[in-house]
Amino acid sequence: MKLTDLSNDINEWFSGEGPLSDIVISSRIRLARNLAGHKFLSRCSNAEKSEILKKLKDVLMSLDLGDKVSYISVDKSPTLDKHFMVERYLISRNHAFSKGPRGVVIAHREFFTAMINEEDHLRLQVLKAGCQISQCAEQISHIDDMIEQQLGYAFNPRYGYLTACPTNLGTGIRVSVMLHLPALKMTGQMDRFINAARAMNLAVRGLFGEGTDAAGDFYQLSNQVTLGFSESDIVSQFENTIIPEIVEYENAARNQLLVKKRDILDDKISRAMALLKNAHLISSQEALFLLSHLRLGINIRERMGVSTPAIDRLCRQNPHDGDETNPQGLSIRTINQLFMLTLPAHLQINYGKPLDPAHRDALRAQIIRSALNRST
Amino acid sequence: MNCQVCNKNEATIHLTEITNGIRTEMHICERCAAKQEIVIKNQVPVNELLSNLLASQPSEQELLGQPDGKTSCPYCGFSLAQFNKEAVLGCPYDYEVFEHALLPLVKRAHDGRTFHCGKIPSKTPADARKQIELLSMRQKLDQAIRNEDYETAARLRDEIAKMQ
């Protein structure tokens, strides 16, 4: 598999489908594991790291996942490829830019990746569109079992699965959801949300993890406690308590916007549309925020069954003359494509060569203009 | 709780004095205790009392801050000074070698929880698996009682009885 096989479209977990996908963009579960009989990576020589890499690579490549899998050697990948894999959530930033023999096994449909020699020997990851946390959990546990049939994991009855960092001890499970919360932001409630999350031992991070900003009103929410709960406790807490509450709050905030701030909402959507359809230079950051407004508009119409003049224009359907001039209109899928395919590394991989920021900003603007002027 | 003298450090010494039926309590940190040269009735200076206390229960501060030449993992050579710097351990055995120092960190990181009660590797032999499951259920039972969740506690107690 070449990266250019992936780079022309979004991955299936970013399709805009799935339960609650107007707010919960995607669900992800990660498991941290280490092989028994080996040191943790910080004390391994490159020779031992290579030995671990080979053992895990052989087992992972032999698994029956119902999809083709490929292995990519991260330490041997060019920098642009590494950035691309990070943008696509195939590997973490840490994995891309650390040292030593390391790689990743990727399912071609991108619902599963396994990082080898990141902070732990093995970090498995399953992603699905919308809120599908228990489905991710079931699938990842099954994959974990298949691997464990062939290799032994470092485990002790008291502390569970043993990890390089004590913060991942026990289940080694990190449940993460990517949320789109534009209304909570527009109604000034983000700080309250972040504080509430922290009080529940949840980490709130930006789009690309630790230390990144909340670009495009996207937030990643994940558990921090991995010891002393079972995997199903953690999953069930997310699905039955945390997610429903957040969805309720964001929906209430969206209603609040429609009732009390309709003009502001329409203004933001219209300006976003105008800029995106016409700008000749646009940064990634700006594009993400403007696309966020369009995403909000489309979801209000499609999920809440409400519309406003700006949203009508956005979706190209005017309720007064009852004439659907363009039944296709602007879809969430298109918005997601514009989101992902204009990220810096995606742009350059698809263009075929590296580009400096000014050229990227121009190319990004051009791609967005042609997509939006075509569909409306 | 903070030291009543400097109000900055955490109070690690709690002195209770009962004189003529009147009980006074003092919560003080090591530094202030030493500075104040507090002497208690039986003539053991507090700093000596301190070192006795510390000898039996070394604080995480002391252990982590001072690399002890003797304490390195026999399997990977890792020392606590390295953990202090890198925030990752050297090998699975470190959890046993440095358990004393790591336990407070684990407790803090996992909201007071220190026992695994989740998935067990499928290759674990049947009797070991049963032991581990029983241990983890007992842990959950204790937790349920602490949380005053008596319904869950009763259910767990019944399940434990069935398993034995």
Give me the secondary-structure topology.
The complex is a heterodimer of chains A (376) and B (164).
Chain A: E1 24-33, H1 46-61, E2 69-73, H2 79-87, H3 93-97, E3 103-107, E4 112-116, E5 122-129, H4 133-150, E6 155-156, E7 160-161, E8 173-180, H5 182-186, H6 190-199, E9 202-205, E10 218-223, H7 231-260, H8 262-278, H9 284-304, H10 309-315, E11 317-318, E12 323-324, H11 332-341, H12 344-351, H13 357-375
Antiparallel strand pairs in A: 1-5, 1-8, 2-3, 3-4, 4-5, 6-7, 8-10, 9-10, 11-12
Chain B: E1 13-19, E2 22-28, H1 30-36, H2 46-56, H3 60-65, H4 80-86, H5 94-97, H6 99-109, H7 126-146, H8 150-163
Antiparallel strand pairs in B: 1-2
Helix pairs in contact in B: 7-8
What would your notes on this structure say?
The complex is a heterodimer of chains A (376) and B (164). The two termini of chain A are 35 Å apart. In chain A, helix 8 runs parallel beside helix 10 (309-315). Chain A has 376 residues and is of the alpha+beta class. The longest helix of chain A is centred in the middle third of the chain and has 30 residues, at 231-260. In chain A, the strands form three sheets. An eight-stranded antiparallel sheet of chain A has the order 2-3-4-5-1-8-10-9, with helices on one face. In chain A, strands 6-7 form a two-stranded antiparallel sheet. Chain A contains 13 helices and twelve strands. Chain B contains eight helices and two strands, in the order E-E-H-H-H-H-H-H-H-H. Chain B is flat. The model of chain B is unreliable at 39-47 and 49-58 (pLDDT under 50). Chain B has helices at 30-36, 46-56, 60-65, 80-86, 94-97, 99-109, 126-146, 150-163, and strands at residues 13-19, 22-28. Chain B starts with 12 loop residues before the first strand and ends with a helix. Chain B has a two-stranded antiparallel ribbon. In chain B, helix 7 runs antiparallel to helix 8 (150-163). The chains are: A alpha+beta (376), B mainly alpha (164). The interface between A and B is large, with 43 and 40 residues.
